[in-house]
Amino acid sequence: MASAIITDANAFLVALLLLSLSHIPFSSSTIQQDFVMCLVDNSDASFPMDSSFFTRDLNASSYKMALETSAQNLRYLMPSNPKPEFIFEPLYETHVQAAVACAKKLQLHLRLRSGGHDYEGLSYVSEMETAFVIVDLSKLRHINVDLESNTAWVHAGASIGEVYYRIQEKSKVHGFPAGLCTSLGIGGHIIGGAYGSMMRKFGLGADNVLDARIVDADGKILNRAAMGEDVFWAIRGGGGGSFGVILAWKIKLVPVPETVTVFTVTKTLEQDGTRILYKWQQVADKLDEDLFIRAIIQPASKTPKSKERTISVSYQGQFLGDANRLMQVMQRSFPQLGLMKKDCVETSWIKSLMYIAGFPSTAPPEALLDGKSLFKNYFKAKSDYVEEPIPIEGLEGLWKKLLEEDSPLTIWNPYGGMMAKIPETETPFPHRSGTLFKIQWLTLWQDGKASEAKHMDWMRDMYSYMEQYVSKSPRAAYVNYRDLDLGMNGKGSDAREWGNKYFKGNFERLVKIKAKFDPENFFRHEQSIPTGLE
Ligand SMILES: Cc1cc2nc3c(=O)[nH]c(=O)nc-3n(C[C@H](O)[C@H](O)[C@H](O)COP(=O)(O)OP(=O)(O)OC[C@H]3O[C@@H](n4cnc5c(N)ncnc54)[C@H](O)[C@@H]3O)c2cc1C
Ligand SMILES: *[C@@H]1O[C@H](CO)[C@@H](O)[C@H](O)[C@H]1NC(C)=O
Fold it and tell me: What one-character-per-residue DSSP string does 439-462 give?
């Protein structure tokens, strides 16, 4: 049987593990023991315990490291948050199959993690089950770029930065349109949409997927043909953790020019900031599709030495072309920003992504390979979609709110272009034609529990102030900016409400597909797609 294939060394490690577990008088040790024995029986690949299995009982410090390394929101790593019984890091696809089969058999609740960037920690914390384990795919990160077919197979645990790196390693004129933050896990990122600086030209990451390999609740591996078009539709935007474990995506590469231009121009309120942002709202979705200009808005000191704060708006741009053509486009469409040739940096596609991600200009592309996050905080975030420009008085009211908070940040991302051409029902991601831009709301803090309530209150108050200015019925939201406040009422979480916000009319189709593909609701979390609606 399968266990016969494990090497002597592995058998020794498993024996050691079982021995050590048998001395621990907690019930969790039985769970671990049963799980490991089941894995050994079910997995036909060798099974090195020491590099794939982490529990507090065996080694508290390596367990802590395995749990925390990729977890992005420190708010979910506090002592009061429930912790997994153990963390399993599969080395082979068959390990994932075995983990699902064994969890099902032993009725263990799984959390799936690729890059750990979930805003509400859903990939590493469960508030709804007493015991849970993490299947962390970070060791399944192989990437195979094939220029001949213009495609790549990328394993779920790879970061998006690694994917970009592997593409440009083979060609300077191929790219992929996905997220800006390079440490995102490709597994959890694409499944919720995946937007980035080329979305206006090529759409989302999810719009550029050709095939996928997924492990279903029976532990079977299915490709597109085997899972069927309904499930293949659902996993291109329906959100992580609802349908199965994505092992890998087959993505379509897109053409990028050898010269890409980036810039950042900052305007404060004293520099006519409000009026320029008002203008940006009118043009950002209509610009040349090669141009993406996002607005990053936050409080800043009025002068270098002053304690008094103002609002600064940084316009960060990526243009798929050279600076001369960019200057012409800006002169024609958005002269109010006052972009000058000296603000423009001509560079390669990969360096333009690193610029936007916040790497220092001296960092080599190889820095993308260590997959480190440049962002780790206690934070709360929300999202909004805007269909009509927010009037000047609305912006002024928002400035007052932002100035009340310690470290708020809001990032406005332009839509239009290809985003407006793809029909709303093409994928579960429905925010297409009619959307001017998306807002991401953030507030960050460093002192943990101490000030959490204050910041959460601020966020909710600001969100309620903005209601009048953003999309209505539903007030839409981006599923990859997971927000557990949505749909919360006196009786708990109303799936219909958050479902409509994330997916609009596509939600009911997602529910039907879920009911057929995972009727026992094996893959679930606080906001997973339900098998039915009340
Ligand atoms: C700093 C930061 C920057 C961001 N920038 C962008 C951006 O530019 N563009 C954008 O679109 N989004 C962005 N996001 C949001 C991001 O796309 C989502 O958080 C996404 O879900 C992250 O995927 P992950 O694998 O890193 O996260 P994880 O926390 O590992 O997973 C997220 C969700 O997917 C599930 N999941 C994970 N792996 C799998 C799998 N293999 N199969 C099935 N389900 C799985 C998890 O259970 C969880 O529910 C950003 C987030 C952060 C924190
Ligand atoms: C526990 O894990 C840490 C970190 O991986 C390692 O340095 C240490 O040697 C381990 N201790 C034991 C007893 O295995």
Answer: EEEEEEESSGGGGHHHHHHHHHHH
Angle at 236 between CA 233 and CA 242, to 5 degrees: 90
- Ligand 1 pocket check for 194: Cβ under 6 Å: yes
Q: How far apart are CA 533 and CA 511, in angstroms?
A: 8
Distance CA 347, CA 258 (A): 8
- Specify the pLDDT at position 46: 75
Report how far residue 93's alpha carbon sits from residue 72's, in angstroms, rounded to the nearest whole number: 25
Report how far residue 297's alpha carbon sits from residue 466's, in angstroms, rounded to the nearest whole number: 15
Q: Which long-range contacts (CB under 8 A, 24 or more apart) does 473-476 make?
A: 474/500, 474/501, 474/504, 475/384, 475/501, 476/384, 476/385, 476/430, 476/431, 476/501, 476/502, 476/504
Please give the Cα distance from 140 to 161 (Å, whole number). 15
Query: Given a cut of 80, is residue 12 above it in pLDDT?
Result: no
CB atoms within 10 A of CB 127: 14
CATH 2.10.70.10 for domain 143-255: no
179 pocket-lining for ligand 1 (C-beta < 6 Å): yes
What's residue 15's pLDDT?
53
User: Is 469 tagged catalytic?
Assistant: no
Identify the band that residue 375 occupies on the pLDDT scale cut at 50, 70 and 90.
Answer: confident
Å from CA of 397 to ligand 1 middle: 32
pLDDT single digits (tens) 384-433: 999 999 999 999 999 999 999 999 999 999 999 999 999 999 999 999 99
- Helices 160-170 + 349-357 axis angle, to 10: 160
For the chain, residues classed under CATH 3.30.43.10 are 8-136
- Residue 237 predicted with pLDDT over 70: yes
The residue whose CA is least distant from atom 3 of ligand 2 is 62
CATH 3.30.465.10 occupies which residues in the chain?
A: 143-255
